[in-house]
Amino acid sequence: MAMPVMGLDVGDRSLGIALSDPSHTIARGVETIRGVTFSRERCLNRVKELVADEGVDTIVVGMPRNAAGEEGFQAQKVHTFISELRRWVDTPVVTFDERFSSVSAERALREGRVSLAKRKELRDKLAATIILQTYLDHERFQRHDTEVTETKRRQE
């Protein structure tokens, strides 16, 4: 049986967490760690707990890039977080382009007429969900493209 994938949106003062279903079809937001309770150690410990409790087989971390696709200062902070995370868990950690995930999350919350206070609470969890769902869709389409190519080769 397949195990879920975890998505993370790493910020300076928050960590958004999402999980997929075991079939890797749908991502759902789990929580945001922020504010007074935010610390790197607390974040790493919570991720470790969820990995064990949920049986996560892969962790996808959103990698911030600019519009040209280049990594900047924030990406270095995410790389540092990933290095620390790899010391806390044995689960494979991969990065995935997170361009515009926070903007998309904010837009969706505004369009849903969510209050400012509630948006702050939900934004990072929703951004993690968007990162993870985009990753899952990408992986599914990659598998599909490979299957189509192999089928065409066998038919030739």
Question: Can you tag this structure with a few keywords?
Answer:
Nucleotidyltransferase, domain 5; 53% helix; 21% strand
SSE topology:
Elements: E1 5-10, E2 14-20, E3 27-34, H1 40-54, E4 58-63, H2 73-88, E5 93-97, H3 101-111, H4 116-155
Helix pairs in contact: 1-2, 3-4
Q: According to CATH, what is the topology?
A: Nucleotidyltransferase, domain 5
Structural class by SSE content: alpha/beta
Stretches where pLDDT falls below 50 for ≥5 residues?
Answer: none
How does the overall form come out from the CA principal axes? globular
Q: List the helices and strands in order.
A: EEEHEHEHH
Tally of discrete structural domains: 1
**CATH homologous superfamily name?**
YqgF/RNase H-like domain
Describe this structure in words.
- The chain contains 4 helices and 5 strands; from the N terminus they run E-E-E-H-E-H-E-H-H.
- It is of the alpha/beta class and 156 residues long.
- It has one domain (5-155): YqgF/RNase H-like domain (Nucleotidyltransferase, domain 5), CATH 3.30.420.
- Strands 3-2-1-4-5 form a 5-stranded mixed β-sheet, with helices on both faces.
